[in-house]
Amino acid sequence: MTSQAPLPPYPIGTPGTPWGAAERAAWLANQRRQRSYEQEVLAPLRATLPAQAEVFEYGQLDYRALGQGVFPLVAVRSRDWRADRPTVLVTGGVHGYETSGVQGALQWLREDFARHAEAVNLLLLPAISPWGYETINRWNPEALDPNRQFRADSPAQESALAMACVAAQAPRNGPQIDLHIDLHETTDTDASEFGPAKAARDGLAFEWHAIPDGFYLVADGERPEPAFQAALIAAVAQVTHIAKPDADGCLIGAPLQQPGVIHYAKRELGLCGSMTAARWVSTTEVYPDSATASPAQCNAAQVATINAAIDYLLKERVRQAAA
User: Fold this and answer.
1) What confidence tier does 280 reach under pLDDT thresholds 50, 70, 90?
2) Radius of gyration of the chain (CA)
C-alpha cells in the first residue's frame, strides 16, 4: 500500500473517546472464526515433529467467560538440552492474523530444526495467539494487543504465559537465551482495519503510514547489533525483496537505520522481542500483500531469517573463541 485512501470513522465508539466495556463487547461481537488452529497448527505440528524435538503444552488460554472457548498453547524444544550450548528462541503468531509468522515457524520446524539441534538448544513457540489465528486478528478477545503486553503483571494471557514458558526453560541459574527471532508480518489491513481500530479504542486520531512493499526487520534500539541485522537482510534478499524507505527515509514512521532495518524501543513498548536479555534479537516483518510475493515466499523469508540468525550466532562463538 503506497497511498492514503480516505477512511470513514471507525464504526465502533465515539471519535476522541476511549472505548469502555460496551465498545469492547461490540467489537468482540463482530469477530468470527475463519480458520482452525487445531487443523492448521496443532495437527501439522504433531504430524511432522522431528525426532530431535519434543512438544509440550505450556498453558491454556481460557476465554469461556467471553464465549470464546479454551485454546491449548504448545511449544517445541530440543530433546537433548545441554547447558554448554547456546540457546535459541523462536516465536511466531504473537499477532494471530500474521499467517507466515505461524506457518513459517512450522515450516522451519519441519525442514531445519533437526540440523540445528546438533549445535544449539532450540525453543519454539509457533502460535502464541491461537484465538487471533482463528479470527485473523491482531488483538485478543479483550481488545488487547499481546505484542504490547510483554511486561511484568501482563494483562494479556498470551504474553504472560509465553514469558513464563521461556523463563521456565532458561532459569536464572541455567542457560540464558542467546538469540531471539520473533516472526511477524506487516499487512495492508494494518492501515485499513487494525490501525484505525487501535486509534478508536484509545480515543486518538489515526496516524496513517504507508505499508512498506517488502521484507524488513525491527531491531531493538537498546541492542541493535547492525552487523547481525545486515546478515539477516542479506539472507532474506535471496528469497524475497527488501522494503524501500518512503520519501521521508522511514518505514512505518520509523527512520531507516540501514537497508531493510528500523529500530524500536522494544522494552518500553512491551514487545515480544524484549522478553529476554538475548544479545541477538530481531523481529521480522514480511509483506504478504505484495503483488510480487507469494505465501510460499513469505514462509521462506521467515525460515531464511531463523537459519541465518543461528548461523551468525555460531560463527560469532567461533570467532570469539579464537580471539
Assistant:
1) very high
2) 19
